[in-house]
Write a structure and sequence with these properties.
Blueprint (H helix, E strand, L loop, with lengths): L1 H13 L1 E5 L3 H14 L5 E4 L2 H10 L4 E7 L7 H10 L1 H6 L3 E5 L4 H9 L5 E4 L4 H17 L5
Parallel strand pairs: 1-2, 1-3, 3-4, 4-5
Helix pairs in contact: 2-7
Length: 149
């Protein structure tokens, strides 16, 4: 119990962890990962970019990281990243933006890193343990970086 409390305290200072994905299974997996890693109270899951942008623009909370599916309905993850870059308040916050998907087109990899840019692009892992490890590594890395908020 002490370990979970210590993790929760750490994530409290890290900020909100945002997941944007239209897949219910993946969202349930992220919720379980959040619970297991101790950031469940800081996890906010959105099924589309519009509701995520509304939250990001309106919340007074610190945002620690965003995990966003590339291929979303309506507005894809890369379009969402462009909107965030064009928003002066969100751009200044320098929130790490991680794209992920089950499949990734090589042209999208180039676009993501050279044009947007994103801070990471990952294939969704096939097992819970692999996905949990990927999320944990990304959060551990970004929780040690200094960036404006």
């Amino acid at each position: 119990m002490e370990q979970i409390d210590a993790l929760a305290k750490k994530y409290e200072t890290f900020g909100d962890i945002i997941v944007i994905d239209s897949d219910d299974f993946d969202n349930e997996m992220f919720a379980q990962i959040g619970s297991d890693l101790g950031f469940g109270d800081n996890l906010h899951i959105f099924e589309d970019g519009e509701s995520a942008m509304e939250y990001l623009r309106e919340t007074p909370n610190r945002i620690g990281i965003i995990f966003c599916e590339i291929y979303l309905p309506k507005r894809n993850g890369m379009e969402l990243k462009v909107l965030m870059r064009e928003d002066s308040v969100l751009r200044k916050k320098s929130v790490p933006f991680i794209l992920f998907s089950t499949v990734v087109n090589p042209a999208d990899v180039e676009l993501a890193y050279l044009e947007l840019p994103v801070q990471g692009l990952f294939l969704k892992q096939s097992s819970y343990a692999e996905m949990k490890a990927m999320v944990d590594v990304a959060i551990q890395y970004w929780s040690t970086c200094i960036h404006p908020q």
